[in-house]
Amino acid sequence: MTEQKDIQMLKQKLLNNGVLDVLIDNPYEGIVVVDKQGYIRLINNTYLEMLGLNIEDAMGKHIADVTSHTKLPQVIESGRTILYDFWEVNGRKFIVLRIPIINDDGEIIGAIGKSLYADMTSGKLLAKKLRQLEKELEFYKAEFKKFHKAKYTFDNIIGESEKIKEIKKLACQIASSISTVLITGESGTGKELVAQAIHNASFRADKPFVRVNCAAVPENLLESELFGYDEGAFTGAKKGGKPGKFELAQGSTIFLDEIGEMPLTMQSKLLTILQERELERLGSIGSLDLDVRVIAATNRDLEKMIKDGTFRQDLYYRLNVINFKMPSLRERLDDIPLLISYLTKKLNKKLNCNVHGFTEDAVQLLMKYHWPGNVRELENSLERVFVFANEKLITPEQFPMLLKIVDVSPALYEPKTLTEAVSQTEINMITSVLKQVNGNRRKAARILDLHPSVLYRKIKKYNIK
Ligand SMILES: Nc1ncnc2c1ncn2[C@@H]1O[C@H](COP(=O)(O)OP(=O)(O)OP(=O)(O)O)[C@@H](O)[C@H]1O
Ligand SMILES: [Mg+2]
């Protein structure tokens, strides 16, 4: 309270001593003040001189009638400051600053425009410095883009199974929209791959793909990491502030990976951003219209998390506008041969080796395993084999671990859902009965009390040999 009083007293003193007049009527800055409707209520001589006008031509007129490219009406409407714009009038360049005037009740009652000569010596120096900074910025932007490049496209999503075909089709269709996308699925099923492919097929492809791993950033840093901060926002804040990942993704795509690990407090903040589509750095005065496509991914069961109270339902609805559920590899074992040949090319190139292919038995072995780590696990298993491969053809013996597991499996594999448990039981029973009857499918069908065609379908579905 006393502080407020002191400020008031100081203001009064300044007014009495004519300091304000000097501030307004100085030869270095053009100043114009407009009211809520945009009519000029104050204008200094410097500003009049810039425009080449007399006081009668300007005072009481609408700002848009006096200078056609004014942005003051915009400032009044949005209540937002526009900092450091360049403005050219009568062949001279100015740096301009536009600020809303807000009264104690928070109402916008007008706006101030301030213009500084940019073609004086100091202005020239400033412009030179700015050009230099712009050049540096371009350089870092290019570096940043290289670093943040999304390397995968739809061609890298391998698979002919119905589920994968559906995903590719939908992803192609929605790539160019701005709708938020949620990608769910087990670890290693290609969630990030799809996110990158969507970005690369969109009109934002030449802009950076900004990835945030919500699980890897410590909780207390996540807010500044996502939204950035202004200089002085808190003790220890970096000089000049720091842009957040959302700001870096402006005009492009942000990939919020492992969204299920985001703490509840941050979930609320993210929800606000997505609802208001406005971005504000911590401790800043201005804000920015958000033009960012959000793609989120998780291997967690968000619906269960909502029930447990660890994920916000309203945020889930915001994110789940378009949903992709990536199938596990065991749901599309038929795609394994295709994946093997794709990965063989990829790994030959990466490891500089010359593997020609896999024997039929080796492919069959890989199709029997349950791949809890999905395509990533498949890729890693092949990589381990390729590193030591002397032969051009890969045989089952080169996967000793798999041979062991597949032999004693399926018991080793723990189903996660009822459907998986049912499939697992079916696989176990069919395999053991087929063994008993030496592979005679008709006999097996009788023992299992199934119509032979049903048994054939199941054998095919589960790839039972
Ligand atoms: N359909 C696919 N075709 C080709 N490669 C794939 C496919 N799916 C996944 N991969 C490969 O598998 C690896 C893992 O994929 P990705 O990182 O996208 O998985 P993820 O779902 O994000 O996993 P996590 O949940 O563990 O982060 C990558 O090397 C990716 O290229
Ligand atoms: Mg991932």
TrEMBL record:
SUPFAM superfamilies assigned to the protein according to its UniProt record, in alphabetical order: Homeodomain-like, P-loop containing nucleoside triphosphate hydrolases, PYP-like sensor domain (PAS domain)
Residues annotated as domain PAS: 16-61
A Pfam family annotated for this UniProt entry: AAA_lid_14
Annotated Sigma-54 factor interaction domain residues: 157-387
GO molecular function: ATP binding; sequence-specific DNA binding
Alphabetized UniProt keyword annotations: ATP-binding, Coiled coil, Nucleotide-binding, Transcription, Transcription regulation
Xref: Gene3D superfamilies: 1.10.8.60, Homeodomain-like (1.10.10.60), P-loop containing nucleotide triphosphate hydrolases (3.40.50.300), PAS domain (3.30.450.20)
Residues forming coiled coils: 123-150
Protein origin, superkingdom: Bacteria
One GO term of the biological process aspect: regulation of DNA-templated transcription
Listed InterPro entries: AAA+_ATPase, AAA_lid_NorR, Homeodomain-like_sf, HTH_Fis, P-loop_NTPase, PAS, PAS-like_dom_sf, PAS_fold
NCBIfam families: sensory_box
Designated name of the protein: PAS domain S-box
Organism: Desulfoscipio gibsoniae DSM 7213
